[in-house]
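Schema walk-through. Below, the input block comes first and the output block second. Nothing else is stored per chain. Lengths vary across the set, and this one has 512 residues.
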Amino acid sequence: MRALGRRGAALLFMASAAAVAAQQASPQPPPEVFGESIDVRVVNVEAEVTDAKGERVHGLSAGDLRLLVDGRETPIEYFTEVEQGKASTAGPQAPVAAGEGVGRNYLLYIDESFAVARLRDSFLDKLERDLPRLAPGDRMAVLASDGTRLDVLCGWTGDAATLAAALERAHRRPTGGNQQIAHQRSLKADVDLLLENSIGDGDPSPYGNIMATEMAALSGRSSPEARSRLGKTAPSVATALRGFEAPPGRKVLLFVSAAWSLRVEAGLYRPMIEAANQLGYTVYPVDTAQADPYEIIALDHLAAATGGRAVLSSALEPFREVVDDSGSYYWLGFTPVWKADDRRHRVTVETRRPGLTVRARAGFADTSKQTRNALKAESVLLFGSAGSDRRLAVRFGEARRVGRGEVEVPLTLDIPFESLTLVPTGGGYAAEVFLAMICKDENGERAEQPRARMRTTVPAVPTAGATARFHVTVRLRNIRQRLAITVQDPASGNSLWGEADYPPRGAADGRE
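--- output ---
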């Protein structure tokens, strides 16, 4: 998702609020103290421990491991060893009991930009065959994207028939891998042409030096089409991770793409890795282009930042491999003592026993309440809101032109007081909300609006059914926009969300 710029929207919090009361009985008196709810949160880290032969090591205790956050040792408050999806041992504060199943959530993301159809289909066939390997508590969701459009082929489910139908739909979708590889090979042809016309290795002449310089520059080129696609793919994956809410349990991202795309620029994958670490996803990339060993190793290093590793699709059994690899681990947890402020933190897990190796995610972002509220808006924009009982009423006022192709649009948000925490003030009662808004225009461009904390006061306790009415002005390009808006009460944590489509000014009468 791009940063807000001239083409985006700007929230102008010329905000006011009023209470619209219904004639019903008054609610109970509001609480005496206003403030944010205590945000007790646990950061989970899944760690796989292997010996010098690469075999899994079982039977360790919390005392055998060291957890370091930003280089400082942090007490392990929660500890469980999980073997093949079940807790084998559990400490006194473990989230599950010994013998209890620990569900896994497999988010299957099919990157159609770089995948080769034949190899993608082979992987999907093997995955469908192995769906019975899902444990009773496991869930899977299927997403597919061409780098621009993201489609939900199946939401979270453990039903094999539903998943098989989603995989069949994935079969029928086009891929761009062969075309992208052809673009990349055309660049290599330029280098080969220079080699054929070169004077020879070690040519000391100025011509030889020029040739060497040109070949060095050409050999490092990447296809502009591939670079453009990758520049969209990684943010698209990050957006999907942030917006697609997962059930409780371990989160696994099966990223079906192609390792050769790392030639374009490995750094472009950073948004995906950061989002995975922020939300606790272990990434297992599946190569569907028969990339060379160097590229597979590079993809493996990329996945290792989240505690995962790359898997192949042609000769091996990728899903079986992921199920086996993600089913046995040590589940560590700790409670941060600082206030969540969106800062990133480094995480390292070490063993106190020599000769052992640990694989775990390298960090996490301590997401604030405001950011979690914004993630909800992103989820609404991508996947729609879940249930009319949580919807926020949004209405547009008359737009006013403020620049070339831009308008200011007043919005009215109606929020039931029953969803807010009221506290006494000097002259009445006050309530506050976090507001987050994301818009998506007709070209598929998304922009997150500045977040805000909004406050309203009323002279008396509202009657039951009363609504707090907030007035907010946004600046938009005068093209069709879809807005997703969420508000959260910081004291109770209650959230409401809503969606609204903005028709451009003049669209109804032909004056666009």
